[in-house]
Amino acid sequence: MQAQDGMATAQVRFRLETDALVTFDGFHVDDVAITVPNTGIPAHSASDYAFLNGTSMATPHVAGAAALVWAAEIAAGNPGITHLQVRDRLLNNGDALAALTGITVTGKRINVQMSMPLHAATGLAATVVSAMQVDLVWTDNSVSESKYRIERDIGTGFVSLARIRSNSQAYSDTTAPSSTTISYRVVAVGRDGRTVASTPVSVSTPAAPPPPSGGGGGGGGCLLSIPAGSPVLLTFCILFIGIVAVRNGRRI
């Protein structure tokens, strides 16, 4: 505001005025007065706040919450949202409280933050760390997601890979298939099941390295007990790389 009466700043508060000429007929507003204190004393103090209850207090709080969600949806590019959708958004995204079971319709209290629009994560980037690991990073743009879902597509469509906490901005896929082109996307999930996905990103993993060479073999053997004088019996044991012939209980 511009300064008033030589003050550097001015604090404004509103007051409803009525002449109360009509009785038992609701509250009639004849004028809205704007008062500006010029004494240097703040327009409000801690003593101006108090806890109040009843529908007279609930009504403006709910109306304000609905207006905030509605305005946020319009700003997010959803001007067609209806009053019924706003109502359901507030009902379905509240905080469940045992003390409210059977007291409110949903057993919840309003949580405006969780009722706000979901915004897709942006800047999703994937880095190939190895043949079996891909690291993901992104920018978290929502305040109302209850979790993030990481989805992966290896050519058969996106499937859920992991569910991670809200406000996350990184994830490591340590089960990536080698020699594969993989697409990833990050999906913000609301309490009421709303989802919004990021733009996918694709990478190609290299071939898995060959297993280390064995470096030789041998060892082992077969144990065969044959009484002396028995017919010749040959037994072959294949152990890694060799064949051992046993005759009359002796290796040859």
Structure described in brief:
The protein has three helices and 15 strands. By secondary structure, it is α+β, with helices and mostly antiparallel strands.
Overview of this structure, please?
The chain has 252 residues and is an alpha+beta fold. The chain folds into 3 domains: 13-115, no CATH class; 122-204, Immunoglobulin-like; 220-252, no CATH class. The chain has 3 helices and 15 strands. The strands form 5 sheets. Strands 7, 8, 10, 11 and 12 form a 5-stranded antiparallel sheet that branches. A 3-stranded antiparallel sheet has the order 5-6-9, with no helix packed on it. The chain has a 3-stranded antiparallel sheet with strand order 13-14-15, with no helix packed on it. A hairpin with a 5-residue loop joins strand 10 (181-189) and strand 11. Helix 1 crosses helix 2 (83-92). It is elongated. The model is unreliable at 22-30, 32-36 and 230-252 (pLDDT under 50).
Which secondary structure elements does this structure contain, and how are they paired or packed?
Layout (H helix, E strand, L loop, with lengths): L12 E5 L13 E5 L19 H21 L7 H10 L2 E2 L11 E2 L2 H4 L6 E9 L2 E7 L7 E7 L5 E7 L4 E4 L7 E9 L5 E3 L3 E4 L30 E5 L2 E6 L2 E2 L1
Antiparallel strand pairs: 1-2, 3-4, 5-6, 6-9, 7-8, 7-10, 10-11, 10-12, 13-14, 14-15
Helix pairs in contact: 1-2
